[in-house]
Amino acid sequence: MKWVLVLLLWALPAFAVQPDEVLDDPALEARAREISAGLRCPVCRNESIDESNAGVSRDLRLMVRERLVAGDSDAEVVDAVVARYGEYVLLSPNAQGANLLLWAAPALLALAGLGIGALAVRRRAAAPEPGLTEEEQARLDAILRAGRDEA
After folding, report:
1. How far apart are CA 106 and CA 112, in angstroms?
2. Who has the most CB within 10 Å: 15, 22, 67, 91?
3. Which Gene Ontology cellular component terms are annotated (predicted)?
4. Domain positions in the chain
């Protein structure tokens, strides 16, 4: 019984695409599913339009299928959706232009952190520890002598 529940929960994303949206041509439907899996729902957080039940996701799924039936290539369909909703709808944004900075930022920040850490360690190791002044040394000696005399 538990496995039936697990299977139903696992299949929930498949319920987002309504039967009236499915294309008759299996090849076009497969292309539509592949494109939809890479497009983010503008309303939901990190959910593809293929998985989302939001109304705007349904509209986007229909738009993708209409463009495919009209003869557009996959790239043309994605470009049309991006032109309408912006690059936010791409679940995996292109690594070019301003997005290149976003892709490179984690590595650049890690390198900067390592560099700053190495510099701090080098400076600390290179700086000699200041010794005691003669007055401090004499006072320390007196304290140590007093401690030995008491013992």
Report:
1. 10
2. 67
3. plasma membrane
4. 2-89, 98-150
Angle at 74 between CA 72 and CA 76, to 5 degrees: 55
Q: CA 135, CA 140: separation in Å to the nearest integer?
A: 9
Contact between 39 and 78 under an 8 Å Cβ cutoff? The reply is: yes
- Listing DSSP states for 71-115 in one string gives T--HHHHHHHHHHHH-GGGBSS--SSTHHHHHHHHHHHHHHHHHH
Q: What is the pLDDT of residue 16?
A: 61
At 1 the pLDDT is: 60
- Rounded to an integer, what distance in angstroms lies between the CA atom of residue 142 and that of residue 116? 43
Q: Is 37 helix (H, G, I), strand (E, B) or coil?
A: helix
Tokens found for residue 107: 């590595």
**For 2-89, which CATH class?**
mainly alpha
Q: d(Cα 93, Cα 87) in Å, to the nearest integer?
A: 7
Q: Model-level pTM greater than 0.70?
A: no
pLDDT at 8 over 60: no
Q: What are phi and psi of 15, to 5 degrees?
A: -75, -10
Tokens of 132: 């005691």
